[in-house]
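In response to reviewer comment 3 from the previous cycle, which asked for concrete evidence that the modeling workflow produces usable outputs, we include below a single protein chain processed end to end. The sequence was submitted unchanged, and the resulting structure tokens are shown without manual editing.
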Amino acid sequence: MRPKLEHIDGLRVKRSFHYANMHLPYFENFWHYHPEMEITYVVVGKGMRYVGDNISSFAEGDLVLLGENLPHNWVSAANWEGGPVETHLFQFPLRLFMDFPEFQPYAPFFQECAYGLHFLSPSQTLIDKMEGFSEIPPHLQLPGLFEIISMLFEDQNRQRLSKTAPQDATFFNKEHKRLFRIKQFLHENLSHNPDLEATADYMSMTKTYFCKWFKKNTGLTFTDYLNKLRIEQASQSLIFSDKNIAEIAYEAGFQNISHFNRVFKEEKGVPPRSFRKGTPGSAGRPAYKTP
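The workflow returned the following structure tokens.
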């Protein structure tokens, strides 16, 4: 499915940037992009986060900064029962900063944002500023955004998300449109255990052609990509449920527990049991390597 271009009403005319404290029943599966940069801080919610070619789990406290035109969406977990979800959302044009000479030293940081940045342990001061942003008078919110960006710039405890970054609108060429359509299909049908043949049929391709095409455009085999998706589903169950590991492995589409344990450790850097215990971790949350 092709990512949709999102238009932010009133930006540059009525205000310099967009801010919203959003309360929703759940995060919809809306794969999109926009020319503005974006900060998303999740206060309440959990599920899957898609940024470019990255798939990761997210939960309360998730903080991400996205560059321009980077496709993304947050999707609530199927077993999410803690709704409604809540986020603090900031969307702003890059020129808002780069038009000022004082922000020129930030240029490499903003270039890094093109891949999407996940901040692993944001300071309480930064969280307080975002959560209290709506209380700031409108004429003082722009300096408040400058301060938030400065704090993110100084925070070195961050990880890149996507391995590729869009350069301009040509990023969304024919091959990427097909790839996003496949990703949408796999996400929506993961519980039905989609296989190679079903996915190739959905795309009206032979299995041989589909395998070659998929590897060329993702750098992964179809099996490796599907395993990544399944591991993220399993990660959510390990964190947010009391199901035993064998049950979680089966629900994620793994028929063999030893195979599940091996794939999980390759993807997350720790075995499932250690991941569930949160070792090694920080701030009481499981630590794992970002794909």
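Residues 268 and 289 are 5 Å apart (CA to CA). We consider this sufficient to address the reviewer's concern, and the full set will be provided in the supplementary archive.
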